[in-house]
């Protein structure tokens, strides 16, 4: 972020500050405390006095420092999985040595060492909570020390002082956070970092309109590539591919990106993408869904997370804690009779823990690494809130509390950015909001696929439904990237859609008679055996009453269908609206009650656009929307997005006041001027990046299309000397 602070005095890289000394002492004491508790609880380990425990903590710090150079070599050779294996082995080895060589400490077996590591991590996590430290600080402590060492070395060598650093741009996506929800969280004191920005005037909180389909893949295609029109839903029947395409499957995400990328995305010219669905044409791609088959990136990027003492162990411990918290919160909803609600059991409990703690901590560590390395533009997607809000509701207490954790991540990244070689401007945005409401199945008594099958009046119809595995996306991306499998099916897909992918494999079976998909309160019905999208006249001839029956079904607000005579038509329970008829030819655009009016002033325009997207369903359905903005998801979610209605279309854009919104990119929405569509936000981000000198040759010599692994490894080698200097000062991560 821009800084008004005076330049720091130029000192040698070896110079210590009081903060460095305080970090070292606090880290040493907390590590010793954790070791002491673990030694007292674990059979097979004993210590005769507190001094021995303190000395063991010091040995852990020194051992970590000594092992870093060989671990870097192993990580470069073995990749991310090599970094994981080497890091875990190094942690056990360092702990074993510390407990074996220190006088007054005895250990009997390696299993006892593993138990000591886990318990120490737990005690340190509790200690950080009691102390009030940021949840993310321990993840980036090592990286932050390195950044500060670089800054001191630059000052000694006549390098740039803070107000002379070249600019950079950090874009943080808070997945699923609507503008009204963020404003509510700011008023409630749940996002103090963002609140400070707004109060000081350094940043402004704006909204942007997420067009239907208001889904993460459509919005990220727009934000990162300026190609939101390439995606019609979260999942759809792709006639060209001859199968269902589900965008949180790595192979399908790769297919979509190949179709839409022009090589000049937001992150071209040296940018970095972390934990995103698409790459934005970044040179560095880490945990990117569409690039999963290439692996999760160079091993050196992951080494600090996997090898720093107790960091991974603490992340795993907190992951288990998140699962316990989910079980408690889900039970509390049931006991209190909170409505609407959905079941919060089974694999979702595990997925919440892994996604909201382990993968978030890993993403935070990776972003910090890219900031320290000076990537011109960095984009990261944090999914915590979106995952919880789907199952709990967008304004329920546990969902709002998730924003508290995300705000802590922002605070941590800002502090890393302050010590980075670039002066980063921080933009916080979301891809859409969410709307509350009972599911369609709860309202109608049956899932959408059963309604369609019944109205088609063909008992033997072969129907396929997709729409139950969105929360598996981040884990699928990580596992597929880590495995980096080769062969016809190169991605690892877990969850309900991964059990039977018969319909996803061309030639494996003839296409079904009908395919039904749900993306929040946006549903689509496809007739895959037809070579093209059918019009109303053809549908009525084949299945009389299907469209009218769907429009009259409780929970459905309108059915969008193309017609041969008058173009797109929206059919509701009490009337129809022709969306491409303006009345100039004498034809009335509305007959009866206008089914589109309840969705807001932009609904007709959004539906016209949606109805002409490639691969859109033969029939497009929107759920009902209540006066309170409640909708009904065609999947098992009480907080949903994908269509229109409620707060799901009001996304967040928090930007530095110095980076103004260009008026030619704004439109009127309900009396407020804002960007409409992710493509407009993309254009604004590109303009900001260009204005900061981060596009093209001015981006600092970054090579478009450079090999991420080779470039990162080269950087890792160049950083080795500074790393050694930084590592000499223990901080708060691990023996920290």
Automatic annotation (TrEMBL):
Keywords: Membrane, Transmembrane, Transmembrane helix. Residues 488-516, 700-736 are annotated as: Disordered. Residues 717-736 have a biased composition (Low complexity). It comes from the Bacteria. InterPro entries: Alkaline_phosphatase_core_sf (IPR017850), Phosphodiest/P_Trfase (IPR002591). The chain crosses the membrane at residues 21-42, 48-67, 79-99, 111-131. The keyword Membrane applies. Pfam families: Phosphodiest. This is Membrane protein. The lineage of its organism: Bacteria, Bacillati, Actinomycetota, Actinomycetes, Micrococcales.
């Amino acid at each position: 972020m821009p800084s008004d602070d005076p330049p720091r005095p130029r000192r040698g890289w070896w110079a210590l500050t009081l903060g460095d000394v305080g970090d070292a002492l606090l880290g040493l004491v907390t590590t010793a405390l954790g070791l002491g508790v673990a030694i007292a609880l674990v059979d097979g380990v004993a210590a005769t006095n507190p001094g021995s425990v303190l000395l063991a903590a010091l040995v852990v710090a020194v051992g970590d420092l000594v092992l870093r150079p060989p671990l870097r070599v192993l990580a470069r050779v073995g990749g991310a999985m090599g970094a994981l294996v080497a890091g875990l082995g190094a942690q056990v080895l360092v702990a074993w040595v510390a407990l074996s060589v220190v006088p007054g400490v005895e250990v009997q077996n390696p299993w006892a060492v593993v138990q000591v590591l886990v318990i120490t991590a737990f005690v340190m996590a509790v200690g950080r909570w009691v102390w009030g430290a940021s949840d993310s600080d321990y993840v980036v402590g090592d990286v932050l020390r390195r950044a500060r060492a670089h800054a001191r070395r630059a000052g000694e060598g006549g390098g740039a002082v803070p107000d002379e650093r070249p600019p950079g741009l950090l874009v943080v996506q808070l997945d699923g956070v609507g503008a009204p929800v963020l404003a509510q969280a700011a008023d409630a004191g749940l996002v103090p970092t963002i609140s400070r920005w707004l109060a000081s005037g350094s940043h402004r909180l704006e909204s942007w309109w997420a067009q239907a389909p208001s889904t993460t893949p459509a919005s990220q295609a727009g934000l990162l590539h300026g190609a939101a029109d390439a995606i019609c839903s979260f999942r759809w029947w792709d006639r060209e591919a001859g199968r269902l395409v589900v965008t949180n499957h790595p192979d399908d995400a790769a297919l979509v990106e190949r179709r839409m990328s022009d090589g000049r995305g937001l992150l071209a010219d040296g940018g970095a993408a972390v934990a995103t669905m698409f790459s934005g044409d970044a040179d560095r791609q880490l945990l990117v869904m569409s690039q999963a088959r290439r692996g999760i990136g160079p091993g050196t990027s992951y080494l600090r997370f996997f090898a720093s003492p107790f960091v991974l162990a603490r992340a795993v411990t907190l992951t288990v804690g998140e699962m316990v918290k989910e079980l408690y919160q889900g039970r509390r909803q049931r006991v209190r009779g909170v409505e609407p609600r959905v079941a919060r059991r089974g694999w979702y409990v595990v997925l919440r823990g892994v996604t909201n703690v382990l993968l978030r901590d890993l993403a935070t560590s990776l972003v910090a690494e890219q900031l320290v390395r000076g990537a011109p533009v960095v984009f990261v997607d944090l999914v915590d809130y979106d995952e919880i809000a789907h199952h709990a509701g967008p304004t329920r207490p546990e969902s709002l509390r998730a924003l508290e954790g995300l705000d802590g991540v922002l605070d941590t990244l800002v502090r890393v950015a302050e010590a980075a070689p670039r002066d980063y401007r921080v933009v916080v945005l979301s891809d859409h909001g969410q709307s509350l409401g009972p599911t369609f199945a709860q309202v109608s008594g049956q899932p959408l696929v059963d309604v369609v099958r019944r109205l088609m009046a063909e008992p033997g119809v072969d129907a396929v439904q997709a729409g139950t595995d969105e929360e598996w996306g981040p884990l699928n991306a990580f596992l597929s990237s880590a495995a980096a499998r080769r062969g016809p099916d190169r991605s690892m897909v877990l969850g309900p859609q991964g059990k039977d992918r018969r319909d996803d494999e061309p030639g494996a079976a003839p296409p079904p008679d009908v395919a039904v998909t749900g993306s929040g309160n946006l549903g689509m019905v496809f007739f895959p055996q037809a070579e093209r999208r059918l019009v109303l006249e053809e549908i009525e001839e084949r299945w009389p009453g299907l469209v009218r029956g769907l429009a009259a079904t409780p929970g459905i607000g309108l059915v969008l269908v193309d017609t041969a005579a008058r173009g797109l038509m929206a059919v509701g329970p009490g009337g129809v609206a022709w969306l491409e008829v303006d009345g100039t030819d004498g034809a009335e655009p509305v007959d009866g009650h206008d089914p589109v009016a309840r969705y807001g002033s932009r609904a007709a325009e959004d539906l016209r656009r949606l109805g002409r997207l490639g691969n859109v369903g033969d029939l497009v359905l929107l759920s009902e929307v209540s006066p309170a903005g409640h909708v009904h998801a065609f999947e098992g979610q009480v907080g949903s997005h994908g269509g229109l209605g409620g707060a799901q279309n009001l996304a967040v854009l928090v930007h530095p006041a110095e980076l103004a919104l260009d008026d030619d990119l704004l439109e009127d929405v309900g009396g407020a001027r804002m960007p409409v569509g992710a493509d407009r936000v993309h254009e604004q981000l590109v303009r900001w990046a260009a204005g900061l000198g981060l596009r093209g040759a001015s981006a600092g010599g970054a090579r478009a299309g450079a090999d991420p692994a080779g470039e990162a490894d080269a950087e890792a080698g160049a950083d080795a000397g500074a790393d050694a200097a930084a590592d000499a000062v223990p901080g708060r991560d691990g023996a920290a």
